[in-house]
Amino acid sequence: MELTLTRISVIIAIGALFAYKYIAKNTKLTVENVNSTYDYIIIGAGSAGCVLAARLSEDPNNRVLLLEAGGEETDNANISIPAAALSVWNTSSDWHYATEKLRICTNWRRKPSLLAKRQRNRTSGEAGCDGWGYDDVLPCFLKSEDIRIDDLKNSRFHNSGGPLAVIKDTVFPIWKRFVDGGKELGYDEVDYNGAEQIGFGRSQVNVRDGARGSTAAQFLRPSMGRSNLHVVVNAHVTTVVIDNKVATGVAFIKDNRKQIVSAGREVILSAGAIGSPQILMLSGIGPGQNLNSFNIPVVVDLPVGQNMEDHICSFIPGTMNTSEGFTGPKVESLSSVGRYLMFGTGPLSTTGLVGTAFIKSSKCKTKYPDIQFHLLATLFIQELAKYSQKYTKGLFPDEWIDGFALSTILLHPKSKGFMELKSNDPFDYPIIEPNYFEQEEDMHMMIESMRKGLELLNTQSFREIGTQVDRLKVPVCSHTTYLSDEHLKCLILHFAATVYHPTSTCRMGSLNDSNTVVDTELRVKGIKNLRVVDASVMPHVTSGNTNAPTIMIAEKAADMIRGIDSVAKVRNKLKQTA
Ligand SMILES: Cc1cc2nc3c(=O)[nH]c(=O)nc-3n(C[C@H](O)[C@H](O)[C@H](O)COP(=O)(O)OP(=O)(O)OC[C@H]3O[C@@H](n4cnc5c(N)ncnc54)[C@H](O)[C@@H]3O)c2cc1C
């Protein structure tokens, strides 16, 4: 306990200093007086909402209001320090959503699985989603990007000068073992955001000058000098005001007071894959049966909250006999702190997620990958693995030792989940039922992904550092034969976790597809002046992490809403270099 307390206090101190140096100069976000009417009201200042607010307010004629239920990102300085990301969990900056308990039962099936066609990391090429193919969306990815990796600066798949810095995580040398191990297995080292996704690479991360590159920091704050952009934090939106099937405003609660603000042009939901469907349902847009049970008048019956997809992962903890990774004492050392404060570099500037790979399972029939690896350059100590502590005894050490965790991720699970209202109280969390492993195929695939992970850890590259995976011998699975399918299944059932990539709860699709909520311009079907712009509109979860695709969606939506084509030049350049 003492170790962790010391660690936390050091991190907080660094955070405070960091905040003083980099952030305190920025002004507070919240405006004192909210106007009665704006042109656009955006709900949710997350990855998408901050981009939209910044882009829509570029036009001085647009009066924009951005409402956010949480506080400012500067309230918790650890949010900006890459290595301190974990210390933000379970704080007031976290919604603390919990999913329903995992039900594994092979004789019940909620629904047959949906379309098999999947997205690429940078595409959403889904049938019925015209305008969202790879060539359509690549310019929007590029618009946001500021590539800071020298050997990629001239790549047609990258761009310089956008708000979102992209760097390679290079602090901990274990990344090289990951890439070399991949080569031993026959994979190339790739820029997985470039021409070829399949292969191994150093992780590309959004860190600028040592600070995590959130859209609040990179898009919103630089726009705050604009008089036409108002932001209100700690404002919990309860409903969209709908009059005769036209969205006319938003109701929110701040400081225990309900306020209603009108939107002259549009209301845009960017409250995320849980928040957006919840607000829609509270406003009468959603599955009629669920709304009727809480006496919410149905305005439009749509499959809001259905079709939820998420990435799920397993962990293989490994130990090693060299100090090539991240440990608490290394990160908290005086030299590390000094380096960070002076130059924004060193162990504190890294997420620890040093390696990323995309591969195909034996069942994969498309040219896109269905398994992802992440190499985390640390073996958590027991105390940090609180979420599953009752099982983790033996899996993680009590004190920091040299090690790592290989996470094997299912990119396209067949199981679909859903979320629905638990009551008509906007402060009541909805039911979140991801249905992980409801389809047996997902379990087979997860076992295969772990076997492929074990193969990687058995390459010469990892053997050279004495890699051991015997922490998988956890007491809770001791009734099975070590590394048998049953053993891996037991590990998966006890330790598999979300990668926090829920999507598709307000799916985009063609107007006549009854399984979708918004059209290809992200307008809610059957309602005027209401759009959804966030991860919830993805037709399927992407073949990679979801943050950059969400930012792309916001970039594209901003152009749609403004009726401009801000990426015409980028698109033409891409055509010339094709
Ligand atoms: C712990 C964690 C780690 C992650 N790591 C990665 C990663 O390494 N790489 C990656 O690509 N992706 C990562 N993701 C996923 C990524 O953050 C999401 O895909 C992305 O943020 C989705 O953007 P969004 O705009 O849809 O929603 P969000 O970013 O969640 O934004 C929604 C916003 O709406 C606000 N809101 C919700 N309800 C209301 C309401 N009623 N009133 C007002 N405001 C409301 C929320 O507070 C929030 O600020 C991670 C997610 C989590 C949770």
UniProtKB/TrEMBL annotation:
InterPro entries: FAD/NAD-bd_sf (IPR036188), GMC_OxRdtase (IPR012132), GMC_OxRdtase_N (IPR000172), GMC_OxRtase_C (IPR007867). The keyword Flavoprotein applies. The keyword Flavoprotein applies. This is CHDH-like protein. PANTHER family: CHOLINE DEHYDROGENASE, MITOCHONDRIAL, GLUCOSE-METHANOL-CHOLINE GMC OXIDOREDUCTASE. Residues 272-286 form the Glucose-methanol-choline oxidoreductase N-terminal domain. The lineage of its organism: Eukaryota, Metazoa, Spiralia, Lophotrochozoa, Mollusca. Transmembrane segments: none annotated. Its cofactor is FAD. SUPFAM superfamilies: FAD-linked reductases, C-terminal domain, FAD/NAD(P)-binding domain. Pfam families: GMC_oxred_C, GMC_oxred_N. Belongs to the GMC oxidoreductase family. Keywords: FAD, Flavoprotein.
